[in-house]
Amino acid sequence: MNTPICDFVREYVEKGPLRLHMPGHKGAAFLGCEPLDLTEVGGADSLCAPGGIIRESEKNAAALFGAGDTLYSTEGSSQCIRAMVYLARLAWSSRREGGRPLIIAGRNAHKSFLSAAALLDVDVHWLFPENPDYSLCRCQISPAALEAALRERPRAAGVYLTSPDYLGNQADLLALSAVTDRYSAPLLVDNAHGAYLAFLDPSRHPIALGADLCCDSAHKTLPVLTGGAYLHLSSAAPAAFFTHAREAMALFGSTSPSYLILQSLDLANRYLGDGYAGKLQDAVNTLGAFKARLALKGWGMIDGEPLKLTLDAKSWGYTGGELGACLEAQGIVPEYADPDWLVLMPVPENLPETLERLEAVLSGVERREPLATRPPVLRRTEACLTVRDALLSPKRRVGLEEAGGKILASLAASCPPAVSPAMPGERLGSNALEIYRYYGVDELWVAE
User: Fold this and answer.
1) Has this prediction a pTM greater than 0.90?
2) How far apart are CA 154 and CA 434, in angstroms?
3) 403-447: per-residue pLDDT in tens?
């Protein structure tokens, strides 16, 4: 597969021009990467309105992912999430049905979804988790619960779900998309952690499972620089999404996108098209066998997406933070830890060596009595303000002991995972405060 962006940049560098344009380093190698860092010079195309090498590269990506269209982001999935909400709101507005725009969303939404709802003045109806073992990141939703929500809100602008979540749990998107299709509600999926799912056989990517729009953080699971992401549109998505997708991305993106990130997305196309599916399947098999060995030793794990290793630290007698510290002491740095879980994200490119080292370190962690404590179960809370009004209201920071009865006026308290027990505009009751306390949050912004 060709790499038009990378080819242009290399040719430009080889000509050795006198750079009297941005960026300010002028190609001088202070860090080493500057010669390949460009701006929108002639021939380099423009990410805001591509018609040349960037557009050609995006089409290559769309073909690889089986999408009707794919747009690049150099600002992560956050930009794509805001664009998805914009497109859903725009399509809703075009129907001229009156009232206020509303999106039905899973409770484990990333804070970029909340900021989009605030900026675009969209109301949110929350779907609460049906899983009995509550976790901040997880929100299991059944087709029946989604159908009930859509039946009561048939004019919803769309449905927004997160799959896979930060821990690796995956929603039954095939069944859920069948529900959204019956109600003609666009399905928007935050697939930030699952770009590689398109290359499994069969594909487990949201676009293949019925999503109209989805975002992938390429940099999370593929060999792409941090910030590289995709907005995918299904071939079956409403025509208005195709018409306005670029406008939506430009609305929330910088006019100075990183050409280093664009080149990494471009190169990833060649890599993904050249035997990656086979490498991925080998890695899935190898990691599956590794997980089976750990299970035989007594480790608890989440049976979720195949490239994520999520350990139930308490099954070994540790909190996730304590187990993470044990690994870090041996030079292994996890992705995420909370009181219950430790998340590790291996990749196919170095899997055998990675797992050999990880297994040796885990074998040296002393097993202790399992910890029985689990997070409190999330209860429904009273919504007093819209997300927009809450985030734009005057606010002050208070300790948890002062927060009871007040209205939350901020986004997620920590990142990762950028998910919050309570949502902006909700009154903070004892249940929400107990969950914040469980996750180590001791201060919140509340409306004055």
Assistant:
1) yes
2) 35
3) 999 999 999 778 789 999 999 999 999 999 999 999 999 999 999
> What distance in Å separates the CA atoms of residue 100 and residue 113, rounded to the nearest whole number?
17
Cβ contact 166:338 at 8 Å: no
Tokens of 374: 């689990």
Query: CB of 149 within 8 A of CB of 325?
Result: no
At the top level of CATH, the class of 277-363 is alpha beta
* Whether residue 164 has a cis bond before it, omega within 30° of 0: yes
DSSP 262-329: HHHHHHHHHHHHSSHHHHHHHHHHHHHHHHHHHHHHT-EE---STT-EEEEGGGGT--HHHHHHHHHT
Which of 270, 279, 313 has the alpha carbon at shortest distance from 63?
270
- Name the amino acid, one letter, at 391: L
Tens of pLDDT, residues 160-186: 999 999 999 999 999 999 999 999 999
Cβ pair 400, 443 in contact under 8 A: yes
Q: In this structure, are strands 102-106 and 123-127 parallel, antiparallel, or unpaired? A: parallel
Which are the contacts of 303, defined by CB distance < 8 A and separation ≥ 6?
A: none
β-partners of residue 232 are: 70, 214
Helix axes 53-65, 259-273, angle to 10 degrees: 40
Q: What is the DSSP string of 329-346?
A: TTT---SEE-SSEEEE--
Q: Which CATH number applies to 387-447?
A: 3.90.105.10
The CATH code that applies to domain 45-253 is 3.40.640.10
Write down the domain spans for the chain: 45-253, 277-363, 387-447
